[in-house]
Fold this sequence. Notes:
The protein is an alpha/beta fold. It contains 8 helices and 18 strands. The chain folds into 2 domains: 5-334, Rossmann fold; 345-452, PLAT/LH2 domain (Lipoxygenase-1, Sandwich). Helices cover 22% and strands 24% of the residues. α1 packs across α7 (259-279) and α5 crosses α6. Residues 85, 87-88 line the site of one 2-acetamido-2-deoxy-beta-D-glucopyranose (NAG).
Amino acid sequence: MPRELKPILLCVFTVCITVLVVGVEEIQSDEECADLNNTTWLEYRQQKVKLQVQYLLLTRRNMDCAQMFNQESLTETQKQPSYFNISHPTKVIIHGYRILGSKPSWVKQLAQAVLRAQNVNVLVVDWVYGASFAYNLAVENYKEVALQISVLINQLQKHGSKLESFHFIGVSLGAHVAGFVGTLFEGKIGRITALDPAGPMFKGADTFDRLDPSDAQFVDAIHTDADYFGISIPVGHVDFFLNGGKDQTGCARSRFASMYGYVICDHMRALHVYMSALNGSCSLMGIPCFSYEDFLEGRCMNCDVFKGTCPTIGLSENSGIAMSPVPREQKLFLLTTASPPFCSHHFLLQLEVSPLGKSAEVEVTLKTQNLGTEQRLRLQTDTTVYRKVLSHPATLCEIDSIELKNTGARFYRQGDIHVKSVCLSEFPAVGREQPLCVNNINIRRGAPWTHDFVQVCGIF
Ligand SMILES: *[C@@H]1O[C@H](CO)[C@@H](O)[C@H](O)[C@H]1NC(C)=O
Ligand SMILES: *[C@@H]1O[C@H](CO)[C@@H](O)[C@H](O)[C@H]1NC(C)=O
Ligand SMILES: *[C@@H]1O[C@H](CO)[C@@H](O)[C@H](O)[C@H]1NC(C)=O
Ligand SMILES: *[C@@H]1O[C@H](CO)[C@@H](O)[C@H](O)[C@H]1NC(C)=O
C-alpha cells in the first residue's frame, strides 16, 4: 500500500472501531466486576502519564466477573482472595492498538472460550491507555508494556509458576508485545499465539523488535489481513494464512461497503476464527506450501513436512505437531468459510479436456442440499490437464453433486467443451479413498452438466 494511504486508512479505522464498540459493548451490571479501562482524547491529553498497565483475572471460578490482578493479589493479606491458582498454566491475552481509546469488546468472549477449553488462569493485559490514539505512539509504548508484564511474570515465577506454563495470545500489536516479553525471557516462555500480528512499522523490523520464532518455545500465528494491518511474513514456527492471508470470505471488497466490512473485517477475522477453533466444533488444518498460488493449484496436498500430522489452529500442544524440533516459519494454507465455525474441507479437482480451439471457462460447483461452493477455471488452448483446489464445509462423501457450467468467453461464442475426465479427491488424504471420477462428458454452453454422487459415507 502506498505510504500516504496509511494515515487515511487509519482514520477510517477510527470510525469503525467506534461503530463496533458502541454496537457490541455490553452494559456492566455488576459493579463488583473489574473491567478494562478506557479513555477519551480529552482525558488522554490532560494526563501526563501516557502508559498505564493493569491486569484482569478470569478463571473457571469467575468466568463472568473479572478480578483486578496485581502482584499483591498473591499475598494472603488480601481482603478478597484471588482466584489465581499458581499450579495452573496461565494464558495472557494482550489487545492491540485502540484508535479511540475504547476498550476492546471481544476480550471476555476470548477469555471465556479459553476457559471452556482449559482450566487455566487467564490474565488480560489492559494497556488501553498506552495503546490509544496515535499508532506510532502506541508502537513506542509496546516495549514498555512488555517490560511491565515481565515484572509481573517474574513475581509469579517466584511464587512457583513455570515460564513454560505461560501462553501469550496477542492480537495485532499485542502480538509484538508478547514477542518482546518473549525476548526478555530469552525464548523460554511456553507459547505465543499471534492473531493477525500487526504489519505497519513491523514488517521490515529486526527480529529483536518484532515477534519471531525465537521468542517462545512455540509460536503460532494466524494471518488474515497481510496486505493492510497484518504482517505478510511468517513470524512463528507455524503461520496459518487463511484464504491466502489477505482477503477473507464474507468481508466486503468494495470501498462502498460498510466501514467494518471494508476496513477491519479481514484483520479481526483471525480473532474470530481462533475463538471458534477454541469452541472445537470442527478442525482447521493448515497445509504447508511455498505459496498460496501453488496451494490453489494443488501442488501441496499433504503434511509430510510434519511427518503426516497437519498443524491445526487452536490450543493443542505445538498446534498438534508431533515431531521435534518443530520446523520454523512454515507457511500453512487453508480455505475457510465466511462465518463460524469457518471450517472447510479441501478438494482437488482434476480436469482433463480434449484440446480446445479457443480459450474457455468452466465453473465448477460442489453441492450439498443447502450449499454450493464454486470455483472458476480458465481453460487454455495449449493445456488439457488442470488442477484446482476447491473447498466445501462438507466432506467428500457428503457432497451430493458436482456441476460443470460452460461459462464461456466474453468476446466470442464458446463451443462445447469435451471433458475426458473430471475427478475429485479430498486432501490431506484421510484414508485410501480413490478419487471420484466421471468420464467423457460434453458440456454445452447454457446447459449445465450435473452429476449426482451416489456414495455411502464411511465404507472405506
Ligand atoms: C468508559 O468511559 C465511559 C465514558 O467516558 C464511562 O462512562 C465508562 O464508565 C468507562 N468504562 C470503564 C470500564 O472505565
Ligand atoms: C483508567 O483511566 C483513567 C482515565 O481514563 C485514569 O485516570 C486511571 O488512572 C486509569 N486507571 C488505570 C489503572 O489504568
Ligand atoms: C489449584 O489447582 C490444583 C490443581 O488443579 C487443585 O488441586 C487446587 O485445589 C487448586 N487450588 C485452589 C485454591 O483452588
Ligand atoms: C462458542 O460457543 C459458545 C457456546 O456454545 C457460543 O455462545 C459462541 O457463540 C461460540 N463462539 C464462536 C466464535 O463460535
